[in-house]
Amino acid sequence: MEIDKLIDAAFEPVSNAVASVIFYSVQLLDLEIKLILIWLVIAAVFFTFYLGFINIRCFGHAIEVLRGKHDNGDLTGQISRFQALMTSLSATVGLGNIAGVAVAISVGGPGAAFWMAVMGIFSMSTKFVEVTLGIKYRQCDNKNKISGGPMHYLFSAFERLKKPQMGKFMAGLFALCCIGGTIGAGGLFQANQAYQQALIVTGGDAGLLADRGWLFGLFMAVLVGMVIIGGIRWIAAVAGRVVPLMAIIYIVAGVIVIGIHHQAIPGALATIFEMALYPEAGLGALMGALLMGVQRATFSNEAGLGSSAIAHCAVKTHEPVSQGMVGMLGPFIDTVIICMVTALVIVISGSYAEGSGIEGVELTSRAFASGISWFPYVLSLTVFLFAYSTMISWSYYGLVCTAYLFGEHLIIEWVYKLLFCMFIVVGASAQLSNIILFTDAMVFAMAVPNIIGLYMLAPEIKNDLRIYLQQLKQKTQKSSGG
């Protein structure tokens, strides 16, 4: 057997075992409903209403904060607001936006794209809460090194109930799940889809990279290793340059393809809405599109998982709520804008009707090729940048959680970084179906302890938000009066 097939055969049973636990389902209306998805949807809707639609009423203010309009010279932290958002987006604006949308449409139909966008808007509220809490409970040592994330606010939430042992357990559970999610979302899935696109542009199964996924993975592992050895400052510096570049390239390419098919735009939008709300196959198809849209949206923007809170924790600020405002822009940029560009390209081109079964980046590549034959080469560059940026950011999340579980030790840090890079090689060699199962299972597992912590601290966040908005109003009135 080839090396790729050997690796995939060894990985498949692990993937199936993990997924069977996390994606426990119940039967409802002849459909299998994954309880973890209901858990995420309820949280997103709850926080949107509980905080008075903060995702809409504070959207403009969030942009002002990102631009630095309300900064006052805060120095606590390691990176700027822009770098924090870019580091967070470099983990979320990845192949979930390219391959993830394709997976959603190939399985749930074009209607899944609509539910992705809806979930993205509601998820902004969840993201606000977890980023705010992450900064509020972050830890800073005597060397000004920041450590933050759900581990810290989970422990504090239970400690207040005089249950510190439960707090340690929940914090440790999150950290363990995050390490698994890091391996899945940060290494396996990104390497797999980057390799698939490279395979397409180098001749497919008869090309140079055929059955050499391990070699491609090794190449990416070396590039990732060169950055992650420098920690959050290096990662933030690279993300701050790569993320805007790759997003612009991808959106421009998508707009060009959409422009070429401009006459099909009304029909494509009608198809998306009709299949989302009134599918011909009835209620079963509607629920299938909804659930697939929610699943891929969550994988894309990570709201409710707690991972982005780790990246934002390194920001230079004394005001947690202000960075929470910046953090909630992530799902909008990621899921509402970039994912919808992908969805429109796929639906307008009609490429989703040409395939069979689950498809990832292959479907997106075929859709881009419908506009201009050489566009898959542009997509290949974008896919590589998306995958690369996601890998370096997720590696940091896993490193923080590893340090939380095992302490700050140089040997443990290097062992983790080596293992992370090794799984990049595995990801480029395994089959997409196995990768999807394992990746989604580990990523969604993070939501269980994290959202429990968000609910427990919800009253505190609501009060902090009320005080913040009151102070903002007073500053505005004083400024206009003076």
Outline the fold blueprint:
Layout: H1 3-22, E1 25-28, E2 31-34, H2 35-50, H3 54-57, H4 59-66, H5 81-92, H6 95-108, H7 111-136, E3 139-140, E4 146-147, H8 150-160, H9 164-201, H10 213-228, H11 231-260, H12 265-277, H13 283-301, H14 307-312, H15 320-327, H16 329-349, H17 361-369, H18 375-406, H19 410-429, H20 432-445, H21 447-456, H22 458-481
Helix pairs in contact: 1-20, 2-7, 2-21, 4-15, 5-11, 5-16, 5-18, 6-7, 6-13, 6-16, 6-17, 7-12, 7-13, 7-15, 7-16, 8-9, 8-21, 9-18, 9-19, 9-20, 9-21, 10-18, 10-19, 11-16, 11-18, 16-17, 17-18, 18-19
For the record, the CATH architecture stands as: Up-down Bundle
Oligomer class:
single chain
Number of domains: 1
Number of strands: 4
User: Strand count, sense and closure of the main sheet?
Assistant: 2 strands, antiparallel
Radius of gyration: 22 Å
Please estimate the helix content: over 70%
Could you tell me the strand content as a percent range? Answer: under 5%
Low-pLDDT windows of residues: none
Net shape:
globular
Topology as a string of helices (H) and strands (E): HEEHHHHHHEEHHHHHHHHHHHHHHH
- Report the CATH superfamily: Amino acid/polyamine transporter I
Strand order of the largest sheet: 1-2
The CATH class, by name, is Mainly Alpha
CATH topology: Amino acid/polyamine transporter I
End-to-end separation in angstroms reads: 77 Å
Mean model confidence by pLDDT: 79
Task: Give the tags.
482 residues, two-stranded antiparallel sheet
